[in-house]
Structure formats: structure tokens, C-alpha cells
Amino acid sequence: MKIDLTSAIRLTPGDLQQAQAALRTLKTGTGAGSEFTGWTTLPQTTGTEEFRRICQLGKKLYEEADALIVIGIGGSYMGARSAIELLKTPYHNQRKGNGPAIYFLGNGICAEDIRTVLQLVEGTDYYVNVISKSGTTLEPALAFRVLKQELQTRLGKEEAARHIICTTDKARGALKTLADAEGYECFVIPDDVGGRYSVLTAVGLLPMAAAGIDIRQVMEGAAAGMKEFFAEEDSNPALLYSAARIALYRTGKKIEIFSYQGEKMRSFAEWYKQLFGESEGKELGGIFPASCQLTADLHSLGQYIQEGERILMESIVRFEKTGCELVIPKDDDDLDGLNYTAGKTFDDAFLAAAQGVKKAHADGGVPVMELIFDRPDEWNLGYMTAFYEVSCAVSSYMRDINPFNQPGVEAYKKNMFTLLGKYR
Predict the structure, then answer these.
(1) Closest CA relative to residue 282, chosen from 195, 396, 193, 198
(2) What is the per-residue burial (b if ≥16 Cβ within 10 Å, else e) of 388-412?
(3) Quick count: other Cβ atoms within 10 Å of Cβ 28?
(4) pTM for this prediction
(5) If residue 186 lies in a helix (H) or strand (E), which one and from where to where?
(6) CA 175, 71, 190: angle at the middle one, nearest 5?
(7) Cα separation of 241 and 249, whole Å?
(8) In sequence order, which residues have a C-beta less than 8 Å from that of residue 181 and are 6 or more positions away?
(9) 3-state SS, residue 319
(10) Which residues have a Cβ under 8 Å from the Cβ of 421 and sit 6 or more positions away?
(11) Is 85 among the catalytic positions?
């Protein structure tokens, strides 16, 4: 990958030294939350029985299932969704002959979402993958109650059990207890991996495999990324990015805009927002993660970015090669006056737009970092995952923050449970 900070900040040796110290904290397991750093070694698990089972079931679902409904919230679905939409497009479910349609439920509380998906899968051979460490998180647990009942009503209890897959704790919790009692096939969320860092476990890998994604290539890219981003050299892109973010934050840049190309990156941006938002937003501080699709959102957010309060930094994320070369045709009438673009590709047009955005925003006082990855394929998905996970942990340790807990998430839950009558 390439990283360009020239329109953002000139780093000092002290900035990089602090980032290197934070990386050493991560590597040596001496920082807060170090018991949840198992994600750093996940790319090395492709020889395990668990990984073999994921590949085997993923292949079966890809070849035989009409649909897969993934039930989970937060890190239990965002990584899988971002991978599928990036590599298989957001229109995956409309494309025939490309494996099962994949739907995501249990990430909110909305009866209409559940009813709509049930209508879409009616009369089809669908499977349910419920993902929850405990099995008691309200949003996925409610959705699973409905889906389990629907399957049992339609297929009978025994056959329904063969259509339910659980990804949960290895030994305890309500979902594990139910899975053992009903005979559901189970995959493990490791004890040392938190939800938002779990995309390279069965949480993300099974839905990816069901969509026809080569998860071995994903893990190879992640392994290469972990090796590169754990190096303490000044050229390490994860160190440069982390150091730049925190240096800019200290100058009053409190919001980072993740700017990306095309619909296929939208869910990846959402994954990034959860990863950094839950990791960094603590102790009345942290960089607020936002996102902007280039160039669509420039017709809504662009005015604020250009001339609003100077609290923003921006990272433009793009690919060197998109793998989809579409040439702009010539029009004999040229009524739109765009024949000057004829013969160029849409990638050429986007590059011009991205560079125009970079210059305009930087000239307007918004520091702009540019992160350039090679292409949107399995290997690079794993590599990008490693980049953002390491960068997030390093950024957090640079502020002496635990990157792996989320104490503030519990506040709304307590209020919600009280209002629903749990404590009466």
C-alpha cells in the first residue's frame, strides 16, 4: 500500500517514536486489555480443525443453500457484510448463480426488517447463522427467537436444527447451552478476541465462505499485513497513519472522515467506524469516525467539509486498480459537453475527482491523508483488515486508552432493559 501525508501533516521524530512505543505495547501484551489481542495471530489459524470446518460448511452453503440469514449486531455482522459487499458487490443477492442470497438481521430492533427478509426467503431452502458470545444480547436474541420458530414451524424441530448454525462461546452462555441441547452446529468466538476484532474468526469467515469468497486468500493477506504492520520501521504505513491521526487530534482535529469510492465500500466504512469509535471514544475524548462517499456525499457534506468548522481531518481511501475498466464513450451530439472525457475510463475520472477533492479540502484547511491499496480482492481485504486493526490499537495506546473494551455501550442497555421490565 501507499500512504501520502503531504497534504495532512509533517510528522516529527517524536510522533513516530510515540507510535513505535505504542506498537511495542501491543506486541508485548503489556497494555490495557492485552487479554483481547488474540486477533493478532488469527491469520496463523488456517491449519486448524475449526478453519477446515468453516471451509467445508461454507462450500456446502455456497453450493446448496438458497439463502443464509446472518443474525448478529456490531462486530458480529459488520465485518462479514463489509467483505461480501466489497468483493461480491452490494447487489450480490440480485445476481443468480453466485451462491446463496445473504441477509443480515438482529442488528437493530425493527419488525419490518424481519418480516421483509422472511417474505424474501419464503419457500426457499435457507439457513440461519446466529452469532453471539452470550446469546442474551437483546437485538440478535429477539431476531433469533422469530427465525427459530419460523424454521421449526415449517420444517419440524429436528430438520430445523440442521438449518441453524451457531457462532458463540466455546463452553458457556445461553446460546452455547441451547446449541448443545438442540444439536446445532457450532463455531467458536475465541475468548481473547473482542467482537469488533473478530472478522477473521468464524464470525466473519463463515458468511464470507458461504458467499464464495476464498477465505484462505483473505488470511494470507492478513498474515502479510500483520507482519508488515508489526515492524517498528519508520516506513510502516500503520505507524505513519496512527502517528498522523493522533498528532492532528492534538491540534484540534476531532473528527476523521473516511472518504471512499463507490457503494461497494460503504459497509467497509461502517466497519471502520465501529472499530475506531468503540476503541477510541473513551474518557471524554477520542477521534469521532465519520464517512463520506466520493463523490456522492460531496453534494451533501461537501459544503461543510470545505467551509465548516475546522475540526476535521480526512483520509481518502482508494484502490490503485479497481478491476472494472469502463471507458467513457464519445457522443456525436455532445449536448452535455462531456466529449472532453471520451476515451478516458471511469477510474481516470474518479482519480481526477479524488485529487481535486484532496487539493480543495487541504487548501480549505482540512488535513487530508491518502491511503492507496492495490485492488479489491480477497488478499487485499485481509491486508486492509490487518492495517486498520493494528492502526486502531496503536492509535488507542498512543492516548493511553484500552482499545478492547466498550464500557459506555452498557448505559443504553440498562435503560432499555428497565423500560422493558427486566428488573421488575
Answers:
(1) 396
(2) bbbbbbbbbbbbebbbbebeeeeee
(3) 10
(4) 0.95
(5) strand 185-188
(6) 55
(7) 12
(8) none
(9) strand
(10) none
(11) no
**Residues in CB range of 52: below 8 A, 6 or more apart:** none
Instruction: Tell me which long-range contacts 281-284 makes (C-beta under 8 A, separation of at least 24).
Output: 281/408, 282/401, 282/402, 282/407, 282/408, 283/401
Question: Distance between CA atoms of 4 and 393, rounded to whole angstroms?
Answer: 21
Residue 185: count of CB within 10 angstroms of its CB: 16
Q: Which pLDDT does position 373 carry in this prediction?
A: 97
At 296 the pLDDT is 93
269 in Cβ contact with 388 (< 8 Å): no
CA separation for the pair 151, 403 (Å, rounded): 39
CB 210 within 8 A of CB 100: yes
Q: What is the 3-state secondary structure (H, E, C) of 229-266?
A: HCCCCCCCHHHHHHHHHHHHHCCCCCEEEEEEECHHHH
Catalytic: which of 60, 330, 413, 422?
413
The DSSP letter of residue 197 is G
CA 422 to chain centre: 32
- Which amino acid does the sequence have at 135? G
pLDDT at 306: 96
Active site residue 278: yes
* The C-alpha cell that represents 47 in the structure block: 491449519
pLDDT of residue 424: 63
- In the residue annotation, 282 being an active-site residue is answered as no
CB environment 259-280: b (16+ within 10 A), e (fewer): bbbbebbbbbbbbbbbbbbbbb
Non-local (6+) Cβ contacts of 97 within 8 A are none
Output the nine-digit C-alpha cell for 34: 492485552
Active-site residue identified among 278, 280, 314, 370: 278
Are the beta carbons of 71 and 247 closer than 8 angstroms?
Answer: no
Point out the catalytic residue in the list 49, 233, 299, 410. 299
pLDDT digits (tens, 9 = 90+) for 313-361: 999 999 999 888 899 999 999 999 999 999 999 999 999 999 999 999 9
- Cell numbers linked to 338: 462531456
Cell of 279: 476503541
Peptide bond into 295 cis (omega under 30): yes
Handedness of CA 115, 117, 119, 125 (dihedral sign): negative
